[in-house]
Design goal:
heterodimer, A: alpha+beta, Alpha-Beta Plaits, 2 domains, two-stranded antiparallel ribbon, 21% strand, B: alpha/beta, Aspartate Aminotransferase, domain 1, Aspartate Aminotransferase, domain 2, seven-stranded mixed beta sheet, three-stranded antiparallel beta sheet, 12 helices, 12 strands, globular
Chain lengths: 163, 360
């Protein structure tokens, strides 16, 4: 990993559909170099996936999302890893993190309705061994996701000046 | 005119980092709305002094050698007035920002331009400088990284200039407002040279590096006797720089570095994209090492820079500045500020391409 790799990663993170030709100009390298480096970064698992940031609310999708906090009793030797691995296998779980503070695991869960999410938590997550407590927070509105602001802000008109 | 893409204005498209705005808003809520010390708040002068030391390795005393001004524009004006007597010749390295020459005239001085040529990557050479020095010469004004050419001066470039300044006992006014925007090694501040330290007035500000044009905060740094003279003018014409801006500027130095660095990285990407595009279109352009201007030549088109700029604006709605207004060495060039989004730069390139096709 060097400065040029980092530049490529930033550019891909910002827009993974940027053509190789343009990446080469921006990052000051040849197109072949761009291909080689990206190949290497993909192989090394530094680039995990290419995707879009979607505003599902605007897409008219009725999905509900919730943040779920879990208090978990860790296992000797394994800590939280095994239970986290099991939870991460549910497709409803969009992201999963181990946190410092008042609770241990944080899940982002999506489902077609509040009812479905409640049922998923009550029937799939809460009864698992070592889960001591759950708290479900329904997301009301997303203002910013992965660095992208969703709300439209009016551009400030800049006034002309002479020089 | 509708739908114009402007490469004409030397202003970052970025909005001031939010942490900076937030601090200023909070200070207004707390009632910080009064005059400050003429020189600027001690807090900001201290921060500037430390910043210049760590960033550019120049040392200025916060109490005796720094004045916070209403932008670098005011700093340039009071610097020129502080050291110019009627009839003094003041050398101005051109192409350059449009205000120096008129400010010299307003101070009763006689502006004399010194060319920085494309063949030298728009650096100031000792030869060009030597040719312009007369017994009446008092001061040299230079701006590197340069608006409009993007030219920079490294230590070796300054050494030759320094010898001449010392031999002829000249002062240097060095406008370094683009000092943070370099893409090939760090900016070299001429006041770092011991022989220049006490004959240099260093000007800098927050507008370009921190995207703070509207806050109007710049500063002037010089030995105590020059600072004292400049302060007299400053307190009559401005009293002090706006307090909200000073608080914002302090915050920019305190916690704005990461956002500043991110903006510089983005300018570098834009430079690469835009200069590559210009050269592909046949408008020869050296890769500028600083500031955020590309300075392509329009010689290949057979048009003058003014004809090119006017026709481009009317036919394709792209605004650029004809180089001739920025000095004799700018003739045949265009100043294009690439401080707009990459998407807009691509659109500008495609319109310039269409314009060039229409000439064939």
């Amino acid at each position: 990993m060097d400065e040029k790799d980092r530049t490529l990663l930033h550019l891909l993170e910002e827009n993974c559909r940027t053509p190789e030709e343009e990446l080469a100009v921006l990052a000051e390298m040849s197109e072949q170099d761009v291909r080689d480096r990206i190949g290497r970064l993909e192989k090394a698992g530094v680039v995990r996936r290419y995707g879009a940031v979607v505003d599902w609310e605007r897409a008219g999708d009725g999905n509900v999302a919730a943040v779920i906090e879990l208090k978990v009793s860790p296992e000797r030797d394994l800590g939280y890893d095994r239970i986290a691995e099991r939870i991460s296998r549910f497709p409803q779980v969009r992201s999963l993190r181990l946190m410092t503070g008042a609770y241990d695991l944080q899940l982002l869960v999506t489902g077609p309705s509040m009812h479905e999410i409640a049922r998923f938590v009550a029937e799939q997550i809460a009864p698992m061994d070592r889960i001591r407590e759950t708290a479900t927070h329904i997301i009301m509105k997303t203002y910013k996701e992965n660095g992208t602001t969703f709300a439209e802000r009016e551009e400030v008109e800049r006034l002309p000046y002479s020089f | 005119m509708e739908d114009v893409i402007s490469l004409g204005v030397g202003e970052p498209d970025f909005v001031t980092p939010w942490c900076v705005c937030e601090a200023s808003i909070y200070s207004i809520e707390q009632g910080s709305t009064a005059y400050t010390s003429n020189k600027g708040t001690p807090q900001l002068r201290d921060a500037i002094s430390r910043y210049l030391d760590t960033r550019f390795r120049t040392r200025y005393d916060a109490e005796e050698e720094i004045i916070v001004t209403c932008g670098v524009s005011e700093a340039a004006d009071i610097a020129i007035r502080a050291v110019t007597d009627p009839g003094d010749e003041v050398l101005v390295a051109e192409p350059c920002y449009v205000s120096y020459t008129p400010c010299v005239s307003l101070a009763g001085g006689i502006p004399v331009t010194v060319p920085c040529r494309a063949d030298d990557e728009f650096r100031l050479t000792a030869d060009a400088l030597a040719e312009s020095i007369t017994p009446k010469t008092k001061t040299l004004i230079a701006n590197f990284p340069n608006n409009p050419t993007g030219g920079v001066m490294q230590e070796a470039d300054w050494r030759g200039i320094a010898d001449l300044l010392v031999d002829h006992d000249l002062l240097l006014i060095s406008d370094e407002v683009y000092g943070e925007l370099t893409y090939d090694g760090d900016h070299f501040s001429p006041a770092r040279l011991p022989e220049l330290r006490d004959r240099t007035i260093t000007l800098n500000g927050f507008s370009k590096a921190f995207a703070m044009t509207g806050w109007r905060i710049g500063y002037l740094c010089a030995p105590p006797e020059i600072t004292a003279a400049a302060l007299k003018i400053h307190q009559y014409v401005a009293l002090c720089a706006p307090v909200m801006g000073q608080i914002a500027a302090y915050e920019a130095l305190r916690i704005g570095e990461a956002e500043k660095d991110a903006m510089v990285r983005e300018y570098r990407l834009r430079r690469n994209l835009f200069v590559d595009g210009l050269n592909k279109l046949g408008l020869t352009c050296h890769l500028p090492k600083g500031a955020f201007y590309a300075f392509p030549s329009v010689e290949s088109t057979g048009l003058t820079d003014t004809e090119f700029a006017e026709s481009l604006l009317h036919e394709q709605h792209v605004a650029v500045v004809p180089g001739s207004v920025l000095g004799p060495s700018g003739v045949g060039h265009l100043r294009c500020a690439y401080a707009i989004s990459r998407d807009d730069l691509k659109e500008a390139l495609s319109r310039i391409g269409a314009f060039l096709d229409s000439l064939k």
